[in-house]
Amino acid sequence: MAVVASSAVGSSVRAASGALVHPGGHAKTLSLLGADALVFYRFDATEHSRRRRAGMKALTGIGPLETLLTLPVDMPVPLESLSAKDRAAVRRLPAGSADRDRREITRHAVRPLHVDLAVVTAEQPRRGLEAATRFAPFCSRAVLLRRPAPRMDEFLNEASFYGVGVLVDSPCGIEMVLEPRAYRPRRHTAAAWNFTEELYQRVR
User: Fold this and answer.
1) In whole angstroms, what is the distance from residue 49 CA to residue 22 CA?
2) Global confidence as pTM
């Protein structure tokens, strides 16, 4: 079973992760996707401030985000160019995510934060690897082992195949023995955006 990382562990993981984690970012241990993960993230300062000024409420749920993804950012779109279904969808968007009048809709909302890395701390290597892979659609991910796996070379090969980084808590401190695959989404999805929105509600 995954276990929650302490603040001391978080600092050590940050140091071991080097350039993978933004130096000005934040870290918090949260229960996400059925696992306890140490998440390194940074706010989009412009969007964070805009939402505060607008008093914007939570923007979660696949439906509204799919609607917003069909609109360009900060560019007015004539309502008459949208289908009846899409016009109905933009009318249901949360206040502050877009401006709408009788003629146009202008999207303002973008992702409020970026996730650099999610680290699952596990006593059992296989379970940790399985939990870490759940973050694949959303960010770079890694597993922190309390001790080396029994067949470490095999474990590292499997982790590499799935793009999961591996950190080990050794007598010398936490070490990154395998870097995670860089997170490069092929396209922007409502599910990935929704992951950041749900995280935002818990850390802002």
Assistant:
1) 20
2) 0.90
